[in-house]
Amino acid sequence: MNNWIDILVSQRTLQLFDGDNKLIKSYSIGIGKIMTPTPIGTYIIVNKQTNPGGSYGSLWMGLSKPYYGIHGTNDPSSIGKYASEGCIRMHNQDVIELASKSRIGTKVVIRK
């Protein structure tokens, strides 16, 4: 599995591609507020944790940029909005699905 993730901050969309750059699925996401923006760059998934507690929802996938990750949320109304401290928020069922198709080491590209 050579899947990779492309995050379009301006569109508040996360897209999962396979190794041949074929779109597998697209998800709506919540991203960082103006004062705490989601960091632009290329990272990898370095860890996963189920039921991390607090506002992180059902699952956390940490990025190679410390303190940032892709995670679920206990506030589904924040999806599609500028609402986080810089992390990428997803509906809980979506982040579980994404995690099942993404391994540790998966490339994550975050673009404007």
Structure explained in plain terms:
- By secondary structure, this protein is mostly beta strands.
- Helix content is 8%, strand content 41%.
- A hairpin with a 4-residue loop joins strand 1 and strand 2.
- It starts with a strand and ends with a strand.
Shape estimate:
globular
Number of helices: 1
Largest sheet: 8 strands, mixed
Strand content: 35-45%
- In quaternary terms, these chains amount to single chain
Mean pLDDT: 97
Radius of gyration over alpha carbons?
Answer: 12 Å
* Fraction in helix: under 10%
Q: Give the number of DSSP strands.
A: 10
Give the N-terminus to C-terminus distance in angstroms. 26 Å
Question: Could you provide a short overview of the structure?
Answer:
The chain is mainly beta and 112 residues long.
Distinctive features:
112 residues; single chain; mainly beta; 8% helix; globular
SSE topology sketch:
Blueprint: E1 4-8, E2 13-17, E3 23-28, E4 31-32, E5 41-50, E6 59-63, E7 69-71, E8 82-84, E9 88-89, H1 92-100, E10 107-111
